[in-house]
Specification:
Length: 124
């Protein structure tokens, strides 16, 4: 069956880095756009970044642009989110999701499959 499993979260000091991984199985990663979303306590789920299935195009929310980088390794069925210069406001549960439609958006309703999330805490 389709599975997305996030890993790589944890506690990090402000200014630090983490690399999140989204390991996928049960479908061909080549055919799916992958998005990263986050949800902080008491807040709505926010689209952070996505990478297209068709041409590798990427999108970043303004809040993370220049600090986060999304990439995919289709041979390993894994998508990564490199997060640098982390700030306390990046603290949230981070989720990856898969969307079969062409292109790349961060509209949560377009995504068919979701992982369970990994927690990121940025604090001194």
């Amino acid at each position: 069956q389709v599975q997305l499993v996030e890993s790589g979260g944890g506690l990090v000091q402000p200014g630090g880095s983490l690399r999140l991984s989204c390991a996928t199985s049960g479908f061909s990663l080549d055919d799916y756009a992958i998005g990263w979303f986050r949800q902080a306590p008491g807040k709505e789920r926010e689209g952070v970044s996505c990478i297209s299935n068709s041409d590798g195009a990427t999108y970043y929310a303004d809040s993370v642009k220049g600090r986060f980088t999304i990439s995919r390794d289709n041979t390993k069925n894994t998508v990564f989110l490199q997060m640098n210069s982390l700030k306390p406001e990046d603290t949230a549960d981070y989720y990856c999701a898969a969307d079969h439609t062409p292109g790349c958006t961060v509209a949560p309703l377009k995504y068919e499959y979701w992982g369970q999330g990994t927690q990121v805490t940025v604090s001194s």
